[in-house]
Structures are given as structure tokens and as C-alpha cells.
Design a protein that fits this description.
Helix 1 packs across helix 6 and helix 5 runs parallel beside helix 6. The strands form 2 sheets. The protein has a 9-stranded mixed beta sheet with strand order 13-12-11-7-10-9-8-14-15. Strand 11 and strand 12 form a beta hairpin. By secondary structure, it is α/β, with parallel strands linked by helices. It is built from 14 helices and 15 strands. It comes from Blastopirellula sediminis. This is Gfo/Idh/MocA family oxidoreductase. InterPro entries: Gfo/Idh/MocA-like_OxRdtase_N, Gfo/Idh/MocA_oxidrdct_glycsds, Gfo/Idh/MocA_OxRdtase_bact_C, NAD(P)-bd_dom_sf, TAT_signal. Pfam families: GFO_IDH_MocA, GFO_IDH_MocA_C2. GO terms for molecular function: nucleotide binding.
Length: 434
């Protein structure tokens, strides 16, 4: 077999064999009093927030390609080892787990190397910026004995937990449609690839920032944050905020996979960048009910006031249109409520019991100590991210597609199937099969 694993091969069925025969030894649970040795990949912005939320453990290693972020983190945790290249960190640092908060295009390789080294993994959303990577990551995690957590931190908030309870209870009756919308993107989209010659800032290692993606010249407009508006590095508004806003829907209903996806866009998207706005209409299969229409809106698009049932539609939200009532929840953990005037006679949401307050990061750390599981392992992260990424394929083609879940491919669309996977440039290949 070739030294390099083909992502297409993994996608079509061999991913379960990743690390076969070389799986890490069983990982002993940690005592409650023993601090975990953690490494952090990406320590600026959301990465710094994740670092602070895990600072009760031993911050053993810090890794970032931007010296400004690394210097700030070092000032807070002077005893941690410092790295620019996460491959070097995995090769030399003694760790129990790793928190990955670098750009989307680096998630797969960093996670797979962590799993290969027997490390527990917390990885920010989306799980990756392409479908094949998500399947590979989930298969590798399932084969290993590590504890994984997908970084959709709002999953633990009371509002999202309440909405999941409502959906799981079935009290709303038949669900006719779901609408989910976001003001994102908060970064430029519908943009061209930057041109011109620009010096690489002395504080940035551009080669390491590019990681396994195709090399291109440095230019302002990628780092920080704006990379989300470039397909090589990010996942657009749907891949980014969709993982949050679709989370209570995917975790609350027995959805399987989309069957049909259609789109409307601003028309300024390209092979380089997502469009300024999009409306993505899914028909999603459900285990015990008819397929459910789910519509995603971004870039300022949203359902009409007539659809929602209010005079002014909020900028972001989740709307469930069901047999008994319309239920609305605000973004990022907002508490669900019946849209006034939309409930059937006498219908009220039952006072379902709420669990104790929870914390997404602490859940992961507790599971490492107990040898237990999390509510968002990579298997769930792959399912949620894949829904977004399959929608992105339709967005990139600005057309309609039909997904065949059994075959793990689009029907009659080689162009769409080609967008399910990418390849790593030399030196950044995925871990090899044994």
C-alpha cells in the first residue's frame, strides 16, 4: 500500500482500519486530585478562551504559529513548554490530552496525530473543513480508547439542553419544518484570492499556518479570522455558526442524513470563497418519522415575519414549526419559548426537569478522569459537521444535489463528489495505516 493514505480510500470504507494493529495501550483513568497534563494548539482568540477554561489542569504545552498569541499565553503560563509546530509538540511533550483551537484546515491532522499518540482530544468546531476528514476522525476516535469532545460549548447551556428535551419528548407532535438563521459571516466572503507581494510578518510562521493546505503567498486578509471566508482554510458561515445553531436540532431529533439539498445565494461565491449570503434548504431523513425540511439562512437572510409569526424577526434564531405550536430559541443557548398566538388550544410546554448546570470543557476533563464518555464525541461531531459541509457542497456549486447516505456520495454528480475530500501537501500527510 502507498505510504500516503488516500482520503478517498478512507472515506469509502477503510477508515475503520486507521491505526489498526498499533492502537494505543489502554489509558488509565486519572484520580480526581491528579491534574491532567494538557497541550493547547492555537492559543489566541477562542483558543485563549479554551485555555483559560482548562487552566485548573496543568498547562504543559502551548503551540501557536503567531508569536503574539504565544507570548501572551506564555506570560500567563510561564512553566509550559512552547512550540510553533504541533508535530514537534506531539513528538516531544508528555501529555494526557490536547485542546485544538487552530483554523479549520488543521483540525484533522492535529486530532489524528493526538489520537495516534494516545491523547484525549478536545477539538473546536467544525470538526474539519471537508467531509472525508470528519469520517476519518470519527473512525480513528472510535478505534482508539481516547476521550473526545467536539467544541460546541453552547451544547451545555440551559437553553439548548431545554430545547433538546422538548424535541426528544415528542410533545410538539409532528414537525412540519425547521428554520435556522444567523447574521454570520462576521468576516468577508464573496472575495477573490488576495494578490500582490507582501512581506511575511516576523511574528507569523506562514508555512506552518498553511499546514497541509496548498501553499500560496502570504497576504493580509487571511489571519486572523478572515480565513473563514476562504474554502481552503475555513467553512463559511454554515460550517462555522451552523455547528452551533443546528446542534440542538441534530442532538434533539433522530435525524440520519440529508437526502436533497437546494440553495439560493448572493451569486458572488467562487472556488476561492463562499458567497456573501446563502439560503440552504435540506430535506433530512428521520429514523421514526417523515423527512423534515430544514432551512439554513446566513448573511442577513432570515425567514419572513409571516413564517415566524412575529412582527419583527430576530437577527439569529431557531424556529420549530410543529403540530402543537411554533417554538423559537435564540442563538447560542437561548431559552426556547412558544411563539405567541401559535399554539393549539390549551397547549403548553411541559415543565421538563432540567439537569444540573454543566460545562462543556469540564465534562471532557471529568470523562478523562472517570474513563467515561462525553455528550459530543467525535462520532457526534462528524454527524453535525457533515450536515453543514454537505450543504456547503451545494453552496459551492450554487445548485441542487442529492445525497446517497448508503453510498456516502452524491448521486450523478462527480463535481460534487470531488468536493468531499482534499489532499495534504508533502510533509503534512495523515498518519499511516499499519
Amino acid at each position: 500500500m502507498s505510504d500516503r493514505i488516500s482520503r478517498r480510500t478512507l472515506l469509502l470504507g477503510s477508515s475503520a482500519a486507521l491505526f489498526a494493529g498499533s492502537a494505543p495501550q489502554p489509558i488509565s483513568a486519572k484520580s480526581p486530585s491528579e491534574r491532567l497534563r494538557l497541550g493547547f494548539i492555537g492559543v489566541g482568540n477562542q483558543g485563549f478562551s479554551n485555555l483559560i477554561l482548562c487552566q485548573g489542569e496543568e498547562v504543559a504545552a502551548l503551540c501557536d504559529v503567531d508569536d503574539r498569541y504565544l507570548t501572551e499565553a506564555k506570560s500567563r503560563f510561564p512553566n509550559a513548554a512552547n512550540y510553533r509546530d504541533f508535530r514537534e509538540m506531539f513528538a516531544t511533550a508528555e501529555l494526557d490530552g490536547v485542546v485544538i483551537s487552530s483554523p479549520d484546515h488543521t483540525h484533522a491532522l492535529a486530532s489524528l496525530l493526538a489520537i495516534e499518540h494516545g491523547l484525549h482530544v478536545y477539538c473546536e468546531k467544525p470538526l474539519s473543513n471537508n467531509y472525508a476528514d470528519c469520517q476519518t476522525m470519527a473512525a480513528a476516535a472510535a478505534k482508539s480508547q481516547v476521550v473526545t469532545q467536539f467544541g460546541v460549548q453552547h451544547h451545555a447551556k440551559r437553553g439548548y439542553r431545554r430545547l433538546r428535551q422538548i424535541l426528544q419528548s415528542g410533545e410538539l407532535g409532528k414537525i412540519a419544518a425547521i428554520h435556522v438563521w444567523s447574521t454570520a459571516p462576521f468576516w468577508p466572503q464573496g472575495v477573490s484570492r488576495p494578490t500582490g507581494e507582501f512581506p511575511i510578518p516576523e511574528w507569523l510562521d506562514w508555512d506552518l499556518w498553511i499546514s497541509g493546505s496548498p501553499m500560496r503567498p502570504y497576504a493580509p486578509g487571511y489571519h486572523p479570522m478572515q480565513w473563514r471566508g476562504h474554502w481552503d482554510f475555513g467553512s463559511g458561515a454554515l460550517g462555522d455558526n451552523g455547528c452551533h445553531l443546528l446542534d440542538p436540532i441534530v442532538s434533539g431529533l433522530p435525524l440520519t442524513a440529508p437526502t436533497a439539498i437546494s440553495v439560493e445565494t448572493s451569486g458572488d461565491g467562487s472556488s476561492e470563497s463562499p458567497p456573501s449570503w446563502s439560503v440552504v434548504k435540506y430535506l433530512v431523513a428521520c429514523e421514526d418519522a417523515a423527512p423534515i425540511p430544514i432551512t439554513w439562512y446566513d448573511g442577513g437572510q432570515k425567514p419572513s415575519a409571516e413564517v415566524v409569526g412575529v412582527a419583527h424577526v430576530p437577527d439569529d434564531g431557531i424556529l420549530i414549526i410543529a403540530e402543537q405550536a411554533k417554538v423559537y430559541a435564540g442563538k447560542f443557548g437561548g431559552m426556547p419559548q412558544i411563539v405567541p398566538g401559535t399554539a393549539t388550544d390549551g397547549f403548553q410546554l411541559s415543565p421538563l426537569a432540567m439537569e444540573d448546570p454543566n460545562n462543556h470543557h469540564q465534562e471532557w476533563l471529568a470523562a478523562i478522569r472517570s474513563g467515561g464518555t462525553t455528550t459530543c464525541p467525535f462520532s457526534y461531531g462528524a454527524k453535525l459537521t457533515s450536515l453543514c459541509l454537505l450543504g456547503n457542497v451545494a453552496v459551492r456549486l450554487n445548485g441542487n444535489v442529492t445525497w446517497n447516505e448508503a453510498a456516502k456520495q452524491f448521486d450523478d454528480s462527480p463535481e460534487a463528489n470531488a468536493l468531499l475530500t482534499t489532499s495534504q501537501r508533502e510533509g503534512w500527510e495523515f498518519p499511516r495505516e499499519s
